[in-house]
Amino acid sequence: MYLYGLSHVRWREEFADCTLLFTDIVTFTNICALCTPYDVVTLLNDLYLRFDRLVGLHDAYKVETIGDAYMIVGVSQSTVAFLGMLMESKLVLSPITHKPIKIRLGVHCGPVVAGVVGIKMPRYCLFGDTVNVANKMESNGIQCKIHVSESAKLNGLKANPSYVFIDRGNTEIRGKGMMYTFFLERNDRKSVWELCARPRSGEQTIDGYMELHDQAIYQEEGTVESQNAENGTTHTTNASNNNNTHHSGRKMMNGSSVDPGSHHVRSPTCTIC
Asked: Which regions are flagged for Low complexity bias (predicted)?
C-alpha cells in the first residue's frame, strides 16, 4: 500500500481522532530581515525549548519544526499544553524590540495517517485533511489567541468540561469555506502556573489568566494611546525622545517593562515571570 504516492513507507498507522496544533511567530519575516541569523536561532531556541518542556510535561508529541512553525499532536487531554505554550511565549523577547513576541495558535481534531517516510533521514510525518485544517486554524487565527475548530472544542470539553471557550463566529477558511470557530480562553480546573509547572510569585494573580491575556505588554514602544470615551477618538503622542524609554530595565511608555536578565515582563496590571 502506498501513502500519498510514496513507495518507501517504512511504517504507517491510522488514527481516528487526533488533536493537532500549529504555532507561528507574528512578523517573523520582519525579525529575520532586521537582525542577524544568530539572533534568529537564539530566539527560536528559546521558544522551542520552552515548548518542548511543555510537550513532555503534558504527554503530547512534537512532530516537527519548520522555521518558526511548531507542530504537535496528541489526544484531546493534550489541549492543556496549549494555554501553557501561549504563556511561555510571553517570556521570549524579540531581538529587535526587546518586547515579548506574539504567536498564533491553531487547533483542529480529526483522523490522520502517520508514517515514517523516506530512506535518507527518514521522518515521522502526519497526512490528511486534518493536518491542513489545523494549519489553516493557525494562519487564519488572531495573534496571542488559541484558535480552535468546532471538533477541537467538542473533544476538549469531553476530556475536560472545565475548559472555557468563546465564540469567534463564522470565519472564512481558504479551501474549506465558512467555518464556525472558537477561542480557547482558560481551564477552570487548573491555573496557568500549574499548566506551565512554574511557581507563582506573590505579585501574580492566583490563577494566572489575567497575565495570560494581558495585552499591555505588546503595546508599541514610543507611543502613548489614550481613548476618549465620550467621542471615541484616539490620541497618540510620540515619545521617541522621551527619557522614560531606556534599555536598562527596559521601561516602556505604556508602563510595561522588561528585565533583560530574567526576561520577566511587567505591565501596569500584572507581572509575567
From this structure: 231-246
